[in-house]
Design goal:
The protein has helices at 41-47, 73-87, 100-111, 138-143, 146-157, 161-172, 181-191, 194-205, 207-215, 232-241, 246-262, 282-285, 287-301, and strands at 6-9, 14-20, 27-30, 53-56, 93-98, 116-122, 225-229, 270-274. By secondary structure, it is α/β, with parallel strands linked by helices.
Amino acid sequence: MLPDGRYYGSGEKNIFARISGKGNPVVVIEPGWGNLSLEWWQIQEELSKFTTVITYDRAGYAESPPSSTPRTSTNIVMELFNMLCNTTLPSPYIIIGHSLGGLYAQHFSKLFPRQTAGLILVDSITTNLLDFDKLDAPNFQKYGSYKSRAENIRKLLELNNEDYTNTITPMLNGLYSDFPRLIADQLFIYQIEKSFCKTITDEYDGIEESIKMLNAIPIFPDIPVYVLCRDFNIMTKISETIGIPFDEARAVEELWVKHNKELLNLSPKSEFFFIKNSSHNIHLTRPDAIIEAVKTMINKIT
């Protein structure tokens, strides 16, 4: 069976969330750009053995209907806050944010410091993301940058439904080969919908404004922050497989690590962890590292 979930009010729309486990502090999982809450099923299952965990899909992803409001950080964070209030789960929360979800998690912590007990940033985007657009790395700019990926997704959306399905199906096949068949099939169903890709581009379009919104709030709460960063060597190898030469891939990874280490400046209680043998999707390649980080943080704050 698929994990149970239900809809909660978030403002304009109801959004879909799954709650499991008992105990405090409640762990809130904010997925990454183009990622779905069901990808976190294994982590949620393990964490729910010792605390309460909530995963959810932002508006426009999976079971959550799209929103008519711009996909900027303020709107997304307010939807999350409203949804959490409607669950009646007690705060303060430990917020886990992956990738773009890490940017939203940082914003949540700034807007709602009393509701945030700790922050775990999983290969998070930072407010310096646009620096990557300035890199002298033509192959990266063509194949690997967030901008190029968003442009390629826009091209997919221009296809008719049949061509869209025929193009995207091979990309999705095998993506979740290690998952139980029922969960892998459901993730495929979610991502085969054009609305999924439309939400990805909408969130990309909101990034620049989201960064401005985050930078406009100078104060960050005095909470523990764990920064989990991908494996430099693994990522350079992955980049080479898509046509990005080693020198460019190395420059990209050096900048990514630099940005992630700068996240230590958020709080005097920040700690940095390189996650060996992991790609950007640490929740898929090294779920154990995230589970251990949560356990460590709970022990520290309780």
